[in-house]
Write a structure and sequence with these properties.
The protein is built from 3 helices and 6 strands, in the order αββββαββα. The relative contact order is 0.18. Helix content is 33%, strand content 34%. The longest helix is centred in the last third of the chain and has 26 residues. It has a single domain, classed as Yope Regulator, Chain: A, CATH 3.30.1460. The chain is elongated and about 45 Å long. It has a 6-stranded antiparallel sheet with strand order 1-2-3-4-6-5. This is Sensory transduction regulator. Keywords: Membrane, Transmembrane, Transmembrane helix. Pfam families: DUF2170. It comes from Aureimonas jatrophae.
Length: 141
């Protein structure tokens, strides 16, 4: 199989894969935005380049997280409980954000690409609950 690119990934997701349900697809520069309607219009960002596909969900602006150092430790302790995904920090429009991301081979089969996105979406939901519990003081550092 040839490596995935922006055009072929757009075609893949525009077909509304059953594992993701109804989605909207848009291109923003070199980034594919896949909006998962059934998950509250959750935006998943997909980039293909070289040998990899990177899939990412923005979770929360870092400035909105209380006690960031302790929260960072929590993310590092719990990341192994989030299969196929990793917590990270990224900058969007000059603002630092926590994200959840996964990376896979640009030669992955279509089913694998869809599975990675579906798992990332489920993990993003779990991470949102974690963040909310943290902000509510229900989880200690």
């Amino acid at each position: 199989m040839a490596d995935w690119n922006l055009a072929s990934l757009t075609e893949l997701f525009a077909a509304d894969p059953p594992a993701l349900g109804d989605v909207d697809v848009s291109i923003e520069g070199d980034v594919l935005r896949v909006t998962i309607k059934e998950k509250g219009n959750l935006d998943v960002f997909v980039v293909a380049g070289g040998d990899h596909i990177l899939v990412s969900v923005l979770l929360v602006a870092a400035a909105a997280v209380s006690r960031r150092e302790a929260f960072d430790r929590l993310c590092l302790r719990t990341h192994k409980l989030v299969p196929l995904s990793t917590f990270g920090l990224t900058v969007v429009n000059g603002e630092e954000w926590y994200e959840l991301f996964g990376s896979l081979s640009a030669r992955s089969a279509a089913e694998v690409v869809i599975e990675e996105v579906a798992v990332l979406v489920a993990n993003a939901h779990d991470a949102a609950v974690l963040i909310q519990d943290w902000q509510n003081g229900e989880i200690a550092a």
